[in-house]
Amino acid sequence: MGLLTGLLTFPLAPVRATAWVAGQVLEAAEREYYDPAPVRRALAELEQELLAGRIDEDAYDRRENELLDRLEELERRDTQRRAP
Question: What's this model's pTM, rounded to 2 decimal places?
Fold first, then answer.
């Protein structure tokens, strides 16, 4: 970037910085949202609740189906992202 270009575009620096920060926040949120580890952890916790008697079979089945659907969705998205 030349000196003249730098001087002329200097007023836009806060806009570029804000856009960069927003992009970083979006990437972090997507990584967290699409991470399968919390879903697997929730499945394990759900099983513990069933074994401890804190929930019944019907509640377990409903929540397990939701979590397995979410896990399947995450795996399908991961497969699509890896495909050329």
Answer: 0.67
